[in-house]
Amino acid sequence: MLKRKTGILLLTLLFVTGLAGTTSDNTITKSERKKAVKLMKDTYKDALHSLKGLSEQQLNYRTDPNRWSVKECFFHISKTENTLWSNFEKAMKEPANPEKRKEIKFTDDQIIKMVEDRSHKAKAPTSLQPENTGYTSLAEAIEDFKLNRTNHIKYMKHTTEDLRNHVIQLPFGSVDCYQFYLFMAGHSNRHTQQMNEVKADSGFPEE
C-alpha cells in the first residue's frame, strides 16, 4: 500500500512540475532535436549580425529600385517568422496524419538546401512584402524577431509533440512539421544571404 501511494505521489509531482512526458516520448531523435536547435540559433545569430553597425543610409540602400534594402529584407524575415509559426501551430493542432507521410519526397537536408538556395528566386506573398509587414522601425522588427525566435528555440528544446506525424502540404510538396521547422530556420538564412548581397554591391554606401 505504501509503495502504491508513493508511486501515485511521484506521478502527481511529475505532472505538477511539468516533467511528465520526457523528450524520449517524441518521434524525433536527440540528434534531430540538436540539429534543429543549432540551425535556429545559427540563423538567428547570422541575421542579427548582418545588421550590426549599419547606418540608416546603408540600411535603406537598394541595388535596384525594384529590389529590397537590408532593412526591408529584415522586415520580411521577421514577419515571415510570425506567419510560418502560425501555420506550424495550426498544423500541430490538427489530428496527426501519418498516412500522408508517403507523400513526403524530400529529406531534412534537402528541405534546408532548397529554402536556402538563392539561385532559385520566388516572389513573396503580398502580406509578407516589407511595406505590408506593419513594422514602423527596424528596432520594432528586431524586437519581434528576437522574442519569437527565442520562443521557437525553447519550443524545440523541450517539445514532446509528435512532429513527424503531422504532415503539411506546401506549394512545392508535403513536409512533416519537423521539416517545416527546419524550413522556417532556413528561410531567415535565405534572406540573410540577400542582405549580404546588398552589402557586397559596389554601390553600397561606405557609411
Largest sheet: 2 strands, antiparallel
Strand and helix order: HHHHHHEEH
| Overall radius of gyration | 20 Å
Q: What CATH first level would be assigned?
A: Mainly Alpha
Derived from helix and strand composition plus strand pairing, the structural class reads mainly alpha
Strand order of the largest sheet: 1-2
**How much strand content do the residues show?**
under 5%
What is the overall shape? elongated
Q: How many beta-strand elements?
A: 2
What is the CATH architecture descriptor?
Answer: Up-down Bundle
Mean pLDDT: 88
Distance between the termini: 76 Å
Q: How many DSSP H or I helices? A: 7
Describe what this molecule looks like in 3D.
The model is unreliable at 1-26 (pLDDT under 50). This protein has a single domain, classed as Up-down Bundle (Four Helix Bundle (Hemerythrin (Met), subunit A)). Helix 2 packs antiparallel against helix 6 (138-158), helix 4 (70-93) packs parallel to helix 6 and helix 4 runs antiparallel to helix 7. 57% of the residues lie in helices and 4% in strands. It has helices spanning 2-17, 30-49, 56-59, 70-93, 108-116, 138-158, 177-199; strands at 167-170, 173-176. The chain is elongated, with a radius of gyration of 20 Å. The termini are far apart. It has 207 residues and is mainly alpha-helical. The chain has a two-stranded antiparallel sheet with strand order 1-2. Strand 1 and strand 2 form a beta hairpin.
